[in-house]
Amino acid sequence: MTERFTGSFTQQEPIPEAGIEAAVAVLRHGRLHRYNTVAGEVAETALLEEEFAAYVGAKYCLALASGGAAMACALRALQVKPGELVLSNAFTLAPVPGAIASLGAKPLFVDVTEDLTIDLDDLERKAARSFARVLLLSHMRGHVCDMERLMALCDELELRVIEDCAHTMGAKWRGVPSGRHGAIGCYSTQTYKHMNSGEGGFLVTDDAELAARAVLLSGSYMLYARHRAAPSPEVFDRLKLDVPNVSSRMDNLRAAILRPQIAMLDDRRARWRVLYHAMEAGLAGVPGVRLIPRPQHEDYVGSSFQFLLPGWEAERVAAFVAAVAARGVELKWFGAADPQGFTSRYAHWRYAEPVALPATDRVLAGLIDMRLPLTFTPEDVALIARIIAEELVRVAGAERLAPVAVAAAD
Question: Does the structure show a pLDDT above 60 at 264?
């Protein structure tokens, strides 16, 4: 009998009861705007920023409307100008180049390695040729590069680093929390990330001027003294008449939902690792599959899983993705000709005027990706791995392949 998976790849765990109770309290008093407080009250958003800053060990934290808003705010805080080149990974998702383009700046894409991290040799070449001054580094799908080598290179090249930690909230490299190597770290609290408020994001930094610029940009209406994880008022006084309001604040409702989740991050990381290891074990040794090695220095959050099918032609990959979908397993393929659901790649972002990257294209042509929500059990993951392994062997051995259309995943 052919096994089939009947679970959902997009179903998240419920919001914790403490978050629900806090959200209801905000709804009852109606003061959702972060600066709408009564005498003696500290806004949920201000408390959230203080608590998240403490979790990652940052001096300053700003809560924003989304991870994309956090990246755009970070770029503006670094005073990136229209037409300026900003280096970024070719392997990332659309909000990253979108944040760059939102300023009128232009992404300059850097190759990805087979370990799914930024190619530091290509970064060095492109930084030297372009005279770019900012790298928006995406820790895409939770894969962190050698951060000591990257930061030494960026210091040498005088590159300011913004870390996109949408997939690495709670992760560490040699004990340093993700987002704490560069000038600014940005995080997402979108539903499919590691804390869930539907949409939302954070920006953290130790630089007082960058933090003040970010708060002003977010739309503080000169109420920056109500922030707790922020610089002193005199830093704002030097900047407040020169920095525009680009409203992108988080509200108290989402902050209330998020605050209890900070204490859950370490436990969630451990639970995701159990699922990740189960998937690794299930696909280990399957012919034609290359698993992604995880460096011993990387304390990763395994909320998604990737593997490569090196040398597979597009028709065979498409047939495999369709075959597992018919058995209830939703995979994303980064080599598809057209964007599918949440998945696109650098060649699809025509507004960025991308130049072909043959080395990256070879990696993405066989790159398969899947979510591992915490609503899965290790037994679910073992079943998913069996289905994937069976279809890999079957499709790899097929002599003829019928044309297939790969459906867009949720």
Answer: yes
